[in-house]
Design a protein that fits this description.
about 350 residues; alpha/beta; 14 helices; about 50% helix; about 15% strand
Amino acid sequence: MAIDIGKLEEFLGRFVADLGATVAAGNVVIGHRLGLYQALAAGPADSGELAARTGTSARYVAEWLCGQAAGGYVQYDPATGLFSLTEEQAFALANPGGGVYVPGAFVLALGALKAEQRIAEAFRTGTGMGWHEHDDDVFLGCEQFFRPGYVANLVPSWIPALDGVHDKLASGARAADIGCGLGASTILLAGAYPNSVFTGSDEIARKRAAEAGVAGRVSFEVAAADAFSGTGYDLAATFDCLHDMGDPLAAARHIRQALAPDGTWLIVEPYATGTIAGNLTPVGRIYYNGSTLLCLPNAMSQAGGYTLGAQAGEPAIRQLAADAGFTRFRRAAETQFNLVYEARP
């Protein structure tokens, strides 16, 4: 076997970057949990000052800061010995309520990796592993990472991109949020549209709804996507969850019959093209690998045998909607991480 040294060195360079990112992930989560990023966003500091701000050990903080600077997550000024965050780094690392919150993704990833042995066994057996069987950080990280994107896009752009839905919600409508997780999307919608009533189906999220002041118009039930209660909904939504279902077609058919005749199904799915080659990108890498650990095993754990995966793409979603009886389908909006579809009866 002839080894091309140049190509080997190129591959090893990729390996070094990936290994560095892998071990850095835990340190990002530590920064998230201890408030290190938020404290550094308050102003430049050395390790002693940042430790004083956060009530932590200066020696640990020194090592953490150097690792963060090496990875480009914080800035270091050799002239002053101070570390700092740029405006962009602070926005992404120290602002959980902003448009993107990077640490949440690492909480999710590290939580998912705790199931590595279970997933490896599933490879051998062809069985699955449900979302409910994962570490709690999977659920918390999922909300922490995806909620900022919903804050930035759901009410400002996704809802207005749907035909007539904003007006319906503004005047008073009934909406179902299927697979709502901890209720972030449901609560955001309820906060924006005080005349409408919302039902979420998945994890119990009543406490968060109460904290947001929308408990009187939001209810939650634990129900499968093909068995949630109610009919005559003006809007039904599935946020980043259709591809996790063992029988998404059954869920789509149930949504179809639960909608009012002029209702709308809002489908938010991971960004993907319709081909494998088109998905071999940095974002596609995240989604394919996340799907292997989370989405596909969950679908495999359920009856139905219809596993979309997180990179299904528009053609597959369009076909599923048609098979479920929807006659109108279009891409309504998109971001770097999501595609937003509108399906109508």
